[in-house]
Amino acid sequence: MLALDQRESLRRMFPLVDGLEVDDDSLRRFKATATRVLSPLASAILLDRPFAVTDARPDSLGPSSSLILAADVLDQPPGQGVVDTSLDPLVTPEFIGRVGAAAVKFLVIWRPDDGGEDRVRLVRSFLEVADAAGVPSLVEAIVRPAAGLEWDGPDARHAAIFQAARELSTLGGTIYKAEMPGYLPGDLSRVRDHSERMTEIVPGPWVVLSNGVNQPDFAPGLREACLGGAQGFLAGRAIWEDTVADPDTLGALTRRSAERLRALTTIVAEALRSRGQQRTVARSLASDVRTKEAGG
Q1: Catalytic-role residue among 31, 105, 177, 292
Q2: How buried is residue 139: exposed, middle or buried, by Cβ count under 10 Å (0-12/13-18/19+)?
Q3: Considering the entire predicted model, what is its pTM?
């Protein structure tokens, strides 16, 4: 699945024009172009209401690709990442039906010092909207350190990713969207093991996002995550980020991004097939052990 719901973070990927950031129409044009080029290659496209989805299903979205609608309002001060989110009051069950969204998604910024009760209420409010609309829901978690602090080493961040999953994935969402477990820039050695732990925590299917992962690391990291239990990806930056400032954006999307998306889809299919074969072997071995123990 392809993510194209970035807003102010997308704006900052564009080169400045006369010292100023690009206008809203530049974001809309990029999203429409990327959707038109890449949606035929994806099972679903994640789009936002302010810049990509207005009163109907976007014309740029291919007929074979499902629309996932972002139901979050992002609080992103200038020069910073997203610091908080709230539920978009305009993404109602009626709006979801009108634009033909097949699912909705909500981003939660998780901090160890924030009140968990408020987060839980917020996510449950989102899930109520999804249930009323009769569509699947995706809950996404991005972890941040406590306000004004830094992580006390990478292990603290990895632990927070698991804590967020324990809190949020059990609230009833259809799919959980997680940061790549165990990832460090240039180091994928712990991704599979941490993904196996994530699979034990999350009661349903989960997928990885690409935010915070260096582009060259995402494909091999995705493979490790899927071998550890992830069911796929819902990613954007690793696929199209470097096309935004390319003088030939359309050409870059058509060639570079399309090739990456095809490759990532193949990686998921192969990893899931390999995992299925491993499970078959494990079941066969377990059966052999039981037979021997029974004296067969």
Answers
A1: 177
A2: buried
A3: 0.92
